[in-house]
Known about the structure:
By secondary structure, the protein is α/β, with parallel strands linked by helices. The protein folds into 3 domains: 265 residues, HUPs (Rossmann fold), CATH 3.40.50.620; 146 residues, CATH 2.40.240.10; 125 residues, CATH 2.40.240.10. The chain has 13 helices and 30 strands. The longest helix has 16 residues. The protein is elongated and about 100 Å long. The two termini are 22 Å apart. 40% of the residues are buried. The structure holds adenosine-5'-triphosphate (ATP) and magnesium ion.
Amino acid sequence: MNNERKPTERKPADHADRTDAPASNFIRNIIDEDNRSGKWGSRVETRFPPEPNGYLHIGHAKSICLNFGTARSYGGVCHLRFDDTNPEKESVEYVESIIDAVKWLGFDWKQDGKDHLYYASDYYDKLYAFAELLIERGKAYVDSQSAEEMRATRGSLTEPGKPSPYRDRTPEENLGLFRRMKAGEFAEGEHVLRAKIDMASPNINMRDPVIYRIRFAHHYRTGDTWCVYPMYDYTHCISDALENITHSLCTLEFEDHRPLYDWVLNELADAGVFTRPLPQQIEFSRLNLTYAITSKRKLLQLVTEGHVEGWDDPRMPTIVGLRRRGFTPEGIQLFCDRIGVTKVDSWIDMSVFEGALRDDLDDKAPRTVAVLDPVKLVIDNFPEGVTEECSAPVHPHHPERGLRTFPISRELWIEREDFTETPPKGYFRLFPGNKVRLRYGYVVECTGAEKDADGNVVAVHCTYFPDSRSGTEGANNYKVKGNIHWVSAAQACPAEVRLYDRLFKEPQPDAGGRDFLEALNPDSKRVVQAYLEPGARDAMPEDRYQFERHGYFVADRVDSKPGNPVFNRIVGLRDSWGKPA
Length: 581
Ligand code: ATP
Ligand code: MG
């Protein structure tokens, strides 16, 4: 594991401190300094700018928690802005899924009754007008070289680029051509608009970057109104300035684009479009999570090629997948707090994510009993047709949440692994002659087992001690080392339980250009027919429980119905990945 900073294991009781006193980081230091100097008054306005070309994933959650969380903690606001300038790949379906994901994570974009939801495509008119202004001021020109010619003359890290033969066109000529580009008079690729900066700049992004290109494509919002579309680098900084963003947080790969961000805004400020101070771009390291993929393109491939059952497959690191898996918004936020923000790219271990989830769920999840690999246990001296009521705390550390009750009777379901004929050293559960406690019930002594023709155990037999019942005085007279869970066969709730595991076998499935599909874990989903404590019949979709001894489980939000629940394993009780069961 090589974390950015080793997350300290905090006890669940410490969760409350996280909103009161957010951990300091280099971004908060910059904001604090701006507040001291009065740069923005005390305004903090950030934005989360997804492109609606796919579903959000856990990497985006880091950016969401950072942008929305930072703004919130300073009493500011974070805008949700769709960066929708690539007409070919974007859609309303993605817009809606992104809105849902951000809301579900616990954030909103309202301040003082104003809804800060924006679309870069709403700025097309302004972006176009600013481009004409740059042309008029001699800061942009129409280049008519082919894409190959432009690539060939761009230079390299060691050599400067060569100026285009069209670089010295007059503003009038450029304006005429740009208007004709917009009017649809040229084919795609025939001309582009470039910023006129410096073909010899050591930063290749500053060598007259393209800021507009021709695309005859239907846009999901603006339809066929436009056939010229602005490039990301040009659009992004202007969108920030139009929305009065103070701190524009983005991932490290944009560090080399910052001079261009500043150039565009400074040119437009000089032209009187924007006033200073101008928004400041600040970069942080992206989240890389082991055993997960955080590339939209590869996630799309998993879905379209059928390696998973959809964007919301509980094994997917998408927000919809994590939600269906049973992860909580609070657990995801806790994880993002723990990993913090730095400027150093690194990998975070999946166990850190799962640990945050457990810490959140441990306190919240009511306890229940589930037998996932059932075999019958018959208590031969228990009267037939009789049931007695047993009880257990809903939560062992929260007596105020009360007790749950469930019946015990002559025939129970227990875990197959809780019986063996030949116990290995240290095995304290059922074997002939051994006594164990049926959790919250009686002490029983194993008398043997029935087998089928193939030698498989079909029923285990035992006798019970009527004076050994948990919670009664007699219970103390029995000292047993084993304690097993069970449900009464006649009243148990049968349920499908989906045992999910990590989607990949390798910690870095796509490292070194490897085909990530080869790292898929063939055992990432196992379905069992289980028997649950009768109360589980009342589970509503998205209700979460701790199945005692097994881990945390959620009633599936799509397939589970009250009375007929279907459960997903969220995470086991402890980190057992890679360790023998
Ligand atoms: P694309 O390849 O489509 O650009 P993207 O992952 O960059 O994919 P965007 O929709 O552009 O997706 O991302 C929105 C915001 O989320 C950006 O500010 C981006 O920097 C941030 N982001 C994306 N992936 C991560 C990640 N793994 N960790 C942290 N932030 C991320
Ligand atoms: Mg992006």
